[in-house]
Write a structure and sequence with these properties.
An eight-stranded mixed β-sheet has the order 3-2-1-4-5-6-7-8, sandwiched between helices. Helix content is 29%, strand content 18%. It has helices spanning 32-43, 76-88, 115-123, 152-160, 180-200, and strands at residues 25-28, 49-52, 93-95, 106-110, 129-138, 141-147, 206-210, 215-216. It contains five helices and eight strands. A hairpin with a 2-residue loop joins strand 5 and strand 6. By secondary structure, the chain is an alpha/beta fold. It has a single domain, classed as NAD(P)-binding Rossmann-like Domain (Rossmann fold), CATH 3.40.50.720. This is THIF-type NAD/FAD binding fold domain-containing protein. The chain crosses the membrane at residues 20-42. Keywords: Membrane, Transmembrane, Transmembrane helix. Pfam families: ThiF. Residues 25-195 form the THIF-type NAD/FAD binding fold domain.
Length: 217
């Protein structure tokens, strides 16, 4: 059950999303997309957020992410914990390590750079996971998968996009990030899927966009 911060007033989103229906959210990767997803989710009322990342904030991370200049050299998850507390009053669970197969439940968002990391997480999906969201960026190209692990069609479709290594992956699929509006757009698509799925079980299985061109693909 979500424990809402009584200091926050969500009245302007009443007709869109009730934070009381939010489920626990695990984010794997606290880089450009993961940091933005965590911040947006917290600001819309998600109070149970767990995030994994072992890296520290470097100068090239700041333009594309939720991090601040003062976060340079700080572990990403620790910096994000402070940022989210400041913006929403929410205390996230910050795990300063790589995800290595820990048990998952409820809703999981993948914000990683390698196919191997995606494959590991997918191998650990279990009946307690209701939705897996996988984000991929390459410059202005955005790809977001939203997969129900109990839906065979979803799973079979997604497996097709897991069946290769990072080295074999086309550049468009992973590894190259571009600019803040794209990271934030990715977070918006992720959180739109969360809202729709938690409200009525709906989501978009695969969303693709050339963000700067404002073009769906």
């Amino acid at each position: 059950m979500q424990v809402l911060n009584p200091a926050l007033n969500f009245s302007h989103q009443d007709e869109i999303f009730d934070p009381a229906i939010a489920r626990s959210l695990t984010i794997i990767g606290a880089g450009s997309i993961g940091s933005c997803v965590a911040l947006v989710a917290a600001k819309m009322g998600v109070s149970k957020i767990i995030i994994y990342d072992e890296d520290s904030v470097e100068s090239h991370n700041i333009p594309m992410s939720a991090y601040r200049i003062c976060d340079l050299g700080v572990r990403k998850v620790q910096a994000l914990k402070e940022i989210i507390k400041e913006h929403s009053g929410t205390d996230i669970v910050a795990i300063p390590e790589m995800y290595t197969g820990q048990r998952l439940r409820d809703t999981v968002v993948l914000c990683v750079d390698t196919m191997e990391a995606r494959q590991l997480v997918f191998s650990k999906i279990n009946p307690l996971v209701d939705l897996l969201i996988d984000t991929r960026l390459a410059q202005e190209y955005l790809s977001v998968f939203a997969i129900e692990p109990t839906n065979k069609f979803d799973v079979d479709f997604y497996k097709h996009f897991l069946a290769y290594s990072t080295e074999e992956a086309a550049r468009i699929d992973c590894g190259t990030h571009g600019i803040a509006p794209i990271s934030m757009r990715a977070a918006s698509v992720v959180c739109a899927n969360l809202i729709n799925f938690w409200k009525n079980g709906k989501k978009e299985m695969h969303y693709e966009e050339l963000c700067i061109a404002l073009q769906r693909v």
